[in-house]
Amino acid sequence: MMAMAKRSGGDEAPGAGALGGFGRYAGPATLILSSLADGAKHGYALTKDVEAFSGVRLAPGTLYEALSRLEGQGLIEALESQDRRRPYRLTAAGATALRAHLDDQRRVADVGLRRLASNWGTS
Amino acid sequence: MIGTQEESARRAARLLRWYPATWRARYGDEFAELLIAEFAEQPRSWRRAADVARSGLVARLTRAGLTGHQPQPAEQVRAGLATAACALAAFGAPGIAMWAQLTIGWAWTPPGTVGATIAMAAMTAAVLLLAVLALLAVVPLSWSAACSLRRRPARRALRGRALLALAGAVVLAVGSHHFQNAWPGTGAHPWAGHGLVPAGVAALGWAATLWVSAYWAHPAALAAFPAAEIAWMAVSPAALIAAVAGVAGLVRRLDLSVRMLRYEAWLAGGAAAAMAVFLAGACCWVLAPGSGSGLFHAGTIDVASLAVMVLALTMARRAAGLARKAAPGSRPR
Hints:
Order of helices and strands of chain A: HHHHEEH
Number of domains of chain A: 1
Oligomer: heterodimer
Mean pLDDT of chain B: 86
Largest sheet of chain A: 2 strands, antiparallel
Shape of chain B: globular
CATH class of chain A: Mainly Alpha
Number of helices of chain B: 11
Number of strands of chain A: 2
Low-confidence stretches of chain A: 1-16
Largest interface: A-B, 21 and 25 residues
Protein backbone atom coordinates (compact mmCIF):
# COMPACT_ATOMS: atom_id res chain seq x y z
CA MET A 1 0.00 0.00 0.00
CA MET A 2 2.90 2.28 0.82
CA ALA A 3 4.36 1.64 -2.63
CA MET A 4 1.02 2.40 -4.26
CA ALA A 5 0.65 5.60 -2.29
CA LYS A 6 4.10 6.70 -3.46
CA ARG A 7 3.43 5.80 -7.08
CA SER A 8 0.34 7.96 -7.17
CA GLY A 9 2.30 10.67 -5.36
CA GLY A 10 2.84 13.51 -7.84
CA ASP A 11 -0.60 15.08 -7.87
CA GLU A 12 -1.83 13.82 -4.50
CA ALA A 13 -4.07 16.01 -2.40
CA PRO A 14 -2.96 16.67 1.20
CA GLY A 15 -3.65 13.67 3.43
CA ALA A 16 -3.67 11.23 0.53
CA GLY A 17 -1.91 7.97 1.25
CA ALA A 18 -2.05 8.73 4.97
CA LEU A 19 -3.29 5.19 5.67
CA GLY A 20 -0.13 3.78 4.12
CA GLY A 21 1.67 4.39 7.42
CA PHE A 22 -0.94 2.41 9.37
CA GLY A 23 0.57 -0.94 8.44
CA ARG A 24 -1.57 -3.74 9.77
CA TYR A 25 -4.09 -1.18 11.11
CA ALA A 26 -4.90 0.00 7.59
CA GLY A 27 -7.74 -2.56 7.46
CA PRO A 28 -9.54 -1.42 10.65
CA ALA A 29 -8.73 2.23 9.79
CA THR A 30 -10.38 1.88 6.36
CA LEU A 31 -13.45 0.27 7.88
CA ILE A 32 -13.75 2.97 10.56
CA LEU A 33 -13.27 5.86 8.13
CA SER A 34 -15.77 4.29 5.72
CA SER A 35 -18.29 4.00 8.54
CA LEU A 36 -17.73 7.60 9.67
CA ALA A 37 -18.12 8.82 6.08
CA ASP A 38 -21.83 8.25 6.73
CA GLY A 39 -21.88 10.47 9.84
CA ALA A 40 -20.58 10.64 13.41
CA LYS A 41 -20.78 7.45 15.52
CA HIS A 42 -19.64 6.24 18.94
CA GLY A 43 -17.69 3.02 19.56
CA TYR A 44 -20.53 0.52 19.74
CA ALA A 45 -22.46 2.06 16.81
CA LEU A 46 -19.23 1.93 14.78
CA THR A 47 -18.75 -1.76 15.59
CA LYS A 48 -22.31 -2.61 14.54
CA ASP A 49 -22.16 -0.51 11.34
CA VAL A 50 -18.82 -2.00 10.27
CA GLU A 51 -20.16 -5.48 10.94
CA ALA A 52 -23.27 -4.72 8.89
CA PHE A 53 -21.52 -3.45 5.76
CA SER A 54 -18.34 -5.58 5.82
CA GLY A 55 -19.12 -8.66 7.88
CA VAL A 56 -16.06 -7.86 10.04
CA ARG A 57 -16.55 -7.60 13.79
CA LEU A 58 -13.92 -5.19 15.16
CA ALA A 59 -12.80 -6.27 18.63
CA PRO A 60 -12.91 -3.44 21.21
CA GLY A 61 -9.14 -3.23 21.68
CA THR A 62 -8.46 -3.15 17.95
CA LEU A 63 -11.20 -0.56 17.43
CA TYR A 64 -9.83 1.86 20.02
CA GLU A 65 -6.23 1.27 18.95
CA ALA A 66 -7.20 2.38 15.45
CA LEU A 67 -9.41 5.22 16.74
CA SER A 68 -6.61 6.70 18.87
CA ARG A 69 -4.16 6.54 15.94
CA LEU A 70 -6.67 8.07 13.52
CA GLU A 71 -7.38 10.82 16.02
CA GLY A 72 -3.65 11.40 16.54
CA GLN A 73 -3.21 11.77 12.77
CA GLY A 74 -6.09 14.24 12.59
CA LEU A 75 -8.14 11.97 10.30
CA ILE A 76 -11.06 11.84 12.75
CA GLU A 77 -12.08 14.04 15.67
CA ALA A 78 -13.93 13.38 18.90
CA LEU A 79 -17.18 15.20 19.60
CA GLU A 80 -18.69 16.10 22.97
CA SER A 81 -19.29 13.02 25.11
CA GLN A 82 -22.92 11.85 25.36
CA ASP A 83 -23.69 9.79 28.45
CA ARG A 84 -20.11 8.41 28.65
CA ARG A 85 -20.24 7.56 24.92
CA ARG A 86 -18.11 9.76 22.71
CA PRO A 87 -18.98 10.04 19.03
CA TYR A 88 -16.27 10.51 16.41
CA ARG A 89 -16.54 12.17 13.03
CA LEU A 90 -14.47 12.24 9.88
CA THR A 91 -12.30 15.33 9.26
CA ALA A 92 -11.57 16.83 5.85
CA ALA A 93 -8.08 15.29 5.96
CA GLY A 94 -9.66 11.95 6.84
CA ALA A 95 -12.04 12.15 3.89
CA THR A 96 -9.12 12.91 1.54
CA ALA A 97 -7.04 10.06 2.96
CA LEU A 98 -9.95 7.61 2.70
CA ARG A 99 -10.66 8.63 -0.89
CA ALA A 100 -7.01 8.17 -1.90
CA HIS A 101 -6.82 4.83 -0.11
CA LEU A 102 -10.01 3.50 -1.69
CA ASP A 103 -8.86 4.70 -5.13
CA ASP A 104 -5.68 2.69 -4.65
CA GLN A 105 -7.67 -0.35 -3.58
CA ARG A 106 -9.99 0.04 -6.56
CA ARG A 107 -7.02 0.16 -8.96
CA VAL A 108 -5.74 -3.12 -7.46
CA ALA A 109 -9.21 -4.66 -7.62
CA ASP A 110 -9.65 -3.54 -11.27
CA VAL A 111 -6.33 -5.09 -12.31
CA GLY A 112 -7.09 -8.33 -10.45
CA LEU A 113 -10.58 -8.62 -11.94
CA ARG A 114 -9.32 -7.81 -15.47
CA ARG A 115 -6.63 -10.47 -15.25
CA LEU A 116 -9.03 -13.00 -13.81
CA ALA A 117 -11.47 -12.33 -16.61
CA SER A 118 -8.85 -12.67 -19.37
CA ASN A 119 -7.14 -15.79 -17.99
CA TRP A 120 -9.83 -17.59 -16.04
CA GLY A 121 -12.95 -16.43 -17.79
CA THR A 122 -16.05 -15.05 -16.11
CA SER A 123 -18.04 -17.21 -13.72
CA MET B 1 -30.39 -6.47 36.39
CA ILE B 2 -28.60 -3.84 38.46
CA GLY B 3 -26.37 -6.58 39.81
CA THR B 4 -25.50 -7.63 36.24
CA GLN B 5 -24.71 -4.03 35.29
CA GLU B 6 -22.47 -3.65 38.30
CA GLU B 7 -20.72 -6.91 37.48
CA SER B 8 -20.24 -5.73 33.86
CA ALA B 9 -18.84 -2.40 35.07
CA ARG B 10 -16.43 -4.25 37.37
CA ARG B 11 -15.30 -6.52 34.53
CA ALA B 12 -14.79 -3.52 32.24
CA ALA B 13 -12.78 -1.76 34.96
CA ARG B 14 -10.61 -4.87 35.35
CA LEU B 15 -9.92 -5.03 31.61
CA LEU B 16 -9.11 -1.31 31.55
CA ARG B 17 -6.15 -1.97 33.86
CA TRP B 18 -4.23 -3.26 30.84
CA TYR B 19 -4.00 0.33 29.60
CA PRO B 20 -1.74 3.11 30.92
CA ALA B 21 -3.28 5.79 33.16
CA THR B 22 -3.06 8.52 30.48
CA TRP B 23 -4.94 6.32 28.01
CA ARG B 24 -7.59 5.50 30.64
CA ALA B 25 -8.01 9.19 31.41
CA ARG B 26 -8.70 9.94 27.75
CA TYR B 27 -10.62 6.86 26.54
CA GLY B 28 -11.53 5.00 29.77
CA ASP B 29 -15.21 5.99 30.10
CA GLU B 30 -16.21 5.44 26.48
CA PHE B 31 -14.18 2.22 26.23
CA ALA B 32 -15.86 0.87 29.38
CA GLU B 33 -19.28 1.70 27.85
CA LEU B 34 -18.34 -0.21 24.70
CA LEU B 35 -17.18 -3.20 26.74
CA ILE B 36 -20.40 -3.21 28.79
CA ALA B 37 -22.45 -3.19 25.54
CA GLU B 38 -20.29 -6.06 24.24
CA PHE B 39 -20.79 -8.05 27.46
CA ALA B 40 -24.57 -7.72 27.06
CA GLU B 41 -24.32 -9.17 23.56
CA GLN B 42 -21.70 -11.82 24.24
CA PRO B 43 -21.06 -12.33 27.96
CA ARG B 44 -17.82 -14.36 27.69
CA SER B 45 -15.17 -14.23 24.98
CA TRP B 46 -11.51 -15.12 25.45
CA ARG B 47 -10.75 -13.57 22.04
CA ARG B 48 -12.12 -10.23 23.22
CA ALA B 49 -10.16 -10.43 26.50
CA ALA B 50 -6.97 -11.30 24.58
CA ASP B 51 -7.57 -8.44 22.13
CA VAL B 52 -8.00 -5.95 24.99
CA ALA B 53 -4.86 -7.25 26.73
CA ARG B 54 -2.81 -7.02 23.52
CA SER B 55 -4.13 -3.57 22.71
CA GLY B 56 -3.45 -2.41 26.29
CA LEU B 57 0.14 -3.59 26.08
CA VAL B 58 0.55 -1.80 22.73
CA ALA B 59 -0.81 1.37 24.38
CA ARG B 60 1.78 0.96 27.15
CA LEU B 61 4.59 0.45 24.62
CA THR B 62 3.37 3.51 22.70
CA ARG B 63 3.36 5.54 25.90
CA ALA B 64 6.96 4.38 26.50
CA GLY B 65 7.96 5.58 23.02
CA LEU B 66 8.63 2.03 21.79
CA THR B 67 6.20 1.88 18.86
CA GLY B 68 6.77 5.20 17.08
CA HIS B 69 3.02 5.89 17.08
CA GLN B 70 3.03 8.97 19.32
CA PRO B 71 1.14 11.65 17.41
CA GLN B 72 3.51 14.50 18.36
CA PRO B 73 7.20 14.10 17.38
CA ALA B 74 8.40 15.99 20.48
CA GLU B 75 6.30 13.68 22.68
CA GLN B 76 7.79 10.66 20.89
CA VAL B 77 11.34 11.97 21.55
CA ARG B 78 10.62 12.70 25.22
CA ALA B 79 9.00 9.27 25.73
CA GLY B 80 11.94 7.58 23.96
CA LEU B 81 14.47 9.46 26.08
CA ALA B 82 12.67 8.58 29.32
CA THR B 83 12.54 4.91 28.34
CA ALA B 84 16.18 4.94 27.25
CA ALA B 85 17.10 6.34 30.70
CA CYS B 86 15.15 3.53 32.41
CA ALA B 87 16.75 0.93 30.14
CA LEU B 88 20.20 2.35 30.87
CA ALA B 89 19.54 1.98 34.62
CA ALA B 90 18.27 -1.59 34.15
CA PHE B 91 21.41 -2.33 32.11
CA GLY B 92 23.75 -0.42 34.41
CA ALA B 93 22.85 -2.14 37.68
CA PRO B 94 23.88 -5.69 36.70
CA GLY B 95 26.57 -4.32 34.37
CA ILE B 96 28.31 -2.25 37.04
CA ALA B 97 28.01 -5.14 39.51
CA MET B 98 29.79 -7.39 37.01
CA TRP B 99 32.41 -4.79 36.11
CA ALA B 100 33.10 -3.98 39.76
CA GLN B 101 33.67 -7.67 40.52
CA LEU B 102 36.26 -7.88 37.71
CA THR B 103 38.01 -4.61 38.54
CA ILE B 104 38.23 -5.60 42.21
CA GLY B 105 39.65 -8.96 41.11
CA TRP B 106 42.27 -7.16 39.01
CA ALA B 107 43.27 -5.05 42.02
CA TRP B 108 44.49 -8.32 43.57
CA THR B 109 45.87 -10.04 40.49
CA PRO B 110 45.56 -9.63 36.68
CA PRO B 111 42.98 -11.93 35.07
CA GLY B 112 44.36 -15.27 33.96
CA THR B 113 42.14 -15.77 30.90
CA VAL B 114 41.96 -13.97 27.56
CA GLY B 115 38.16 -13.77 27.86
CA ALA B 116 38.33 -11.88 31.16
CA THR B 117 41.10 -9.56 29.88
CA ILE B 118 39.16 -8.62 26.71
CA ALA B 119 36.01 -8.26 28.80
CA MET B 120 37.76 -5.89 31.20
CA ALA B 121 39.13 -3.69 28.41
CA ALA B 122 35.80 -3.47 26.53
CA MET B 123 33.70 -3.01 29.64
CA THR B 124 35.98 -0.34 31.10
CA ALA B 125 36.04 1.62 27.83
CA ALA B 126 32.23 1.40 27.63
CA VAL B 127 31.77 2.46 31.28
CA LEU B 128 34.01 5.48 30.66
CA LEU B 129 32.08 6.38 27.50
CA LEU B 130 28.72 5.92 29.26
CA ALA B 131 29.85 8.13 32.16
CA VAL B 132 30.87 10.89 29.72
CA LEU B 133 27.59 10.58 27.75
CA ALA B 134 25.54 10.60 30.98
CA LEU B 135 27.32 13.74 32.12
CA LEU B 136 26.76 15.41 28.74
CA ALA B 137 23.06 14.50 28.95
CA VAL B 138 22.41 15.32 32.60
CA VAL B 139 24.12 18.74 32.83
CA PRO B 140 21.95 20.55 30.22
CA LEU B 141 18.84 18.67 31.41
CA SER B 142 19.48 19.78 35.00
CA TRP B 143 19.94 23.34 33.78
CA SER B 144 16.64 23.18 31.86
CA ALA B 145 14.91 21.70 34.90
CA ALA B 146 16.34 24.41 37.17
CA CYS B 147 15.19 27.14 34.75
CA SER B 148 11.71 25.59 34.45
CA LEU B 149 11.41 25.24 38.23
CA ARG B 150 11.87 29.00 38.53
CA ARG B 151 8.81 29.54 36.31
CA ARG B 152 5.59 29.28 38.26
CA PRO B 153 3.35 27.37 35.75
CA ALA B 154 5.81 24.50 35.31
CA ARG B 155 6.95 24.36 38.92
CA ARG B 156 4.11 22.23 40.26
CA ALA B 157 4.45 19.51 37.61
CA LEU B 158 8.22 19.30 37.91
CA ARG B 159 8.93 19.78 41.61
CA GLY B 160 7.88 16.28 42.74
CA ARG B 161 9.92 14.57 40.03
CA ALA B 162 12.94 16.76 40.67
CA LEU B 163 12.82 16.00 44.40
CA LEU B 164 12.41 12.26 43.72
CA ALA B 165 15.42 12.25 41.36
CA LEU B 166 17.53 14.27 43.77
CA ALA B 167 16.59 12.20 46.83
CA GLY B 168 17.29 8.92 45.02
CA ALA B 169 20.65 10.15 43.71
CA VAL B 170 21.74 11.52 47.08
CA VAL B 171 20.82 8.30 48.96
CA LEU B 172 22.61 6.22 46.32
CA ALA B 173 25.75 8.40 46.36
CA VAL B 174 25.99 8.72 50.16
CA GLY B 175 25.17 5.07 50.82
CA SER B 176 27.59 3.79 48.17
CA HIS B 177 30.33 6.01 49.57
CA HIS B 178 29.62 4.73 53.09
CA PHE B 179 29.68 1.04 52.12
CA GLN B 180 32.49 1.14 49.57
CA ASN B 181 35.16 0.23 52.11
CA ALA B 182 33.36 -2.89 53.29
CA TRP B 183 35.15 -4.99 50.68
CA PRO B 184 38.55 -6.07 52.04
CA GLY B 185 40.35 -5.94 48.68
CA THR B 186 39.71 -2.30 47.90
CA GLY B 187 39.61 1.08 49.53
CA ALA B 188 42.71 1.49 51.64
CA HIS B 189 44.10 -1.98 50.93
CA PRO B 190 47.85 -1.74 50.21
CA TRP B 191 47.57 -3.85 47.02
CA ALA B 192 44.82 -1.73 45.61
CA GLY B 193 45.69 0.38 42.58
CA HIS B 194 47.09 -2.45 40.45
CA GLY B 195 43.86 -2.66 38.49
CA LEU B 196 42.63 -0.96 35.35
CA VAL B 197 40.82 1.75 37.33
CA PRO B 198 41.41 3.24 40.78
CA ALA B 199 40.30 0.74 43.41
CA GLY B 200 38.05 3.33 45.03
CA VAL B 201 35.99 3.62 41.83
CA ALA B 202 35.58 -0.14 41.63
CA ALA B 203 34.59 -0.27 45.29
CA LEU B 204 32.01 2.48 44.76
CA GLY B 205 30.50 0.47 41.90
CA TRP B 206 30.48 -2.66 44.05
CA ALA B 207 28.76 -0.87 46.94
CA ALA B 208 26.16 0.78 44.69
CA THR B 209 25.19 -2.59 43.22
CA LEU B 210 25.58 -4.75 46.31
CA TRP B 211 21.96 -5.85 45.90
CA VAL B 212 22.73 -7.55 42.56
CA SER B 213 23.66 -10.71 44.36
CA ALA B 214 23.12 -14.46 44.32
CA TYR B 215 22.84 -14.32 48.11
CA TRP B 216 19.11 -13.54 47.79
CA ALA B 217 18.69 -17.20 46.82
CA HIS B 218 20.61 -18.30 49.93
CA PRO B 219 18.83 -16.69 52.91
CA ALA B 220 20.95 -18.56 55.49
CA ALA B 221 24.19 -17.14 54.07
CA LEU B 222 22.59 -13.71 53.64
CA ALA B 223 21.57 -13.68 57.32
CA ALA B 224 25.25 -13.77 58.27
CA PHE B 225 25.78 -10.35 56.64
CA PRO B 226 25.90 -7.27 58.91
CA ALA B 227 22.39 -5.86 59.40
CA ALA B 228 23.41 -2.50 57.93
CA GLU B 229 24.62 -4.17 54.72
CA ILE B 230 21.36 -6.13 54.35
CA ALA B 231 19.42 -2.91 54.88
CA TRP B 232 21.54 -1.22 52.20
CA MET B 233 20.82 -4.11 49.81
CA ALA B 234 17.12 -3.30 50.22
CA VAL B 235 17.41 0.51 50.21
CA SER B 236 19.84 0.96 47.29
CA PRO B 237 17.59 -0.52 44.55
CA ALA B 238 14.70 1.59 45.86
CA ALA B 239 16.94 4.68 45.68
CA LEU B 240 17.97 3.77 42.12
CA ILE B 241 14.33 3.31 41.08
CA ALA B 242 13.42 6.65 42.68
CA ALA B 243 16.27 8.46 40.92
CA VAL B 244 15.46 6.97 37.51
CA ALA B 245 11.69 7.47 37.90
CA GLY B 246 12.35 11.11 38.83
CA VAL B 247 14.64 11.67 35.85
CA ALA B 248 12.22 9.92 33.46
CA GLY B 249 9.31 12.00 34.82
CA LEU B 250 11.31 15.20 34.38
CA VAL B 251 12.30 14.32 30.80
CA ARG B 252 8.65 13.62 29.97
CA ARG B 253 7.47 16.94 31.38
CA LEU B 254 10.28 19.35 30.51
CA ASP B 255 9.54 21.69 27.67
CA LEU B 256 12.82 21.11 25.79
CA SER B 257 13.84 23.04 22.70
CA VAL B 258 14.05 21.33 19.31
CA ARG B 259 17.85 21.55 19.38
CA MET B 260 17.98 20.04 22.86
CA LEU B 261 15.65 17.18 21.86
CA ARG B 262 17.90 16.38 18.89
CA TYR B 263 21.02 16.56 21.07
CA GLU B 264 19.59 14.29 23.78
CA ALA B 265 18.29 11.80 21.20
CA TRP B 266 21.77 11.69 19.64
CA LEU B 267 23.33 11.04 23.06
CA ALA B 268 20.80 8.25 23.70
CA GLY B 269 21.90 6.62 20.44
CA GLY B 270 25.53 6.89 21.58
CA ALA B 271 24.65 5.37 24.95
CA ALA B 272 22.96 2.41 23.23
CA ALA B 273 26.16 1.86 21.18
CA ALA B 274 28.31 1.99 24.34
CA MET B 275 25.96 -0.49 26.02
CA ALA B 276 26.43 -2.85 23.07
CA VAL B 277 30.23 -2.65 23.51
CA PHE B 278 29.85 -3.36 27.23
CA LEU B 279 27.59 -6.32 26.53
CA ALA B 280 30.07 -7.73 23.99
CA GLY B 281 32.77 -7.55 26.67
CA ALA B 282 30.52 -9.14 29.28
CA CYS B 283 29.67 -11.98 26.86
CA CYS B 284 33.41 -12.55 26.26
CA TRP B 285 33.86 -13.12 29.98
CA VAL B 286 30.72 -15.03 30.91
CA LEU B 287 30.42 -17.25 27.84
CA ALA B 288 34.15 -17.96 27.27
CA PRO B 289 35.14 -21.49 28.32
CA GLY B 290 36.72 -21.51 31.78
CA SER B 291 35.85 -17.95 32.65
CA GLY B 292 38.42 -17.91 35.42
CA SER B 293 38.73 -18.63 39.08
CA GLY B 294 38.16 -16.75 42.31
CA LEU B 295 36.99 -13.23 41.66
CA PHE B 296 37.10 -13.81 37.89
CA HIS B 297 34.71 -16.75 38.05
CA ALA B 298 31.39 -16.18 36.25
CA GLY B 299 28.42 -17.60 38.14
CA THR B 300 24.70 -18.10 37.54
CA ILE B 301 23.99 -14.51 38.63
CA ASP B 302 26.26 -13.29 35.79
CA VAL B 303 24.35 -15.36 33.21
CA ALA B 304 21.09 -13.92 34.57
CA SER B 305 22.66 -10.45 34.41
CA LEU B 306 23.51 -11.02 30.73
CA ALA B 307 19.86 -11.84 30.01
CA VAL B 308 18.70 -8.65 31.77
CA MET B 309 21.29 -6.60 29.88
CA VAL B 310 20.26 -8.03 26.50
CA LEU B 311 16.65 -7.09 27.23
CA ALA B 312 17.58 -3.60 28.46
CA LEU B 313 19.84 -2.99 25.46
CA THR B 314 17.08 -4.06 23.05
CA MET B 315 14.73 -1.60 24.73
CA ALA B 316 17.30 1.22 24.78
CA ARG B 317 18.19 0.73 21.10
CA ARG B 318 14.54 0.78 20.06
CA ALA B 319 13.68 3.83 22.22
CA ALA B 320 16.78 5.77 21.16
CA GLY B 321 16.30 4.85 17.48
CA LEU B 322 12.67 5.99 17.42
CA ALA B 323 13.55 9.16 19.39
CA ARG B 324 16.28 10.05 16.86
CA LYS B 325 13.93 9.35 13.96
CA ALA B 326 11.17 11.51 15.46
CA ALA B 327 13.48 14.33 16.60
CA PRO B 328 12.31 17.51 14.86
CA GLY B 329 14.56 18.36 11.94
CA SER B 330 16.06 14.85 11.64
CA ARG B 331 16.47 13.49 8.13
CA PRO B 332 13.90 10.82 7.18
CA ARG B 333 15.58 7.47 6.53
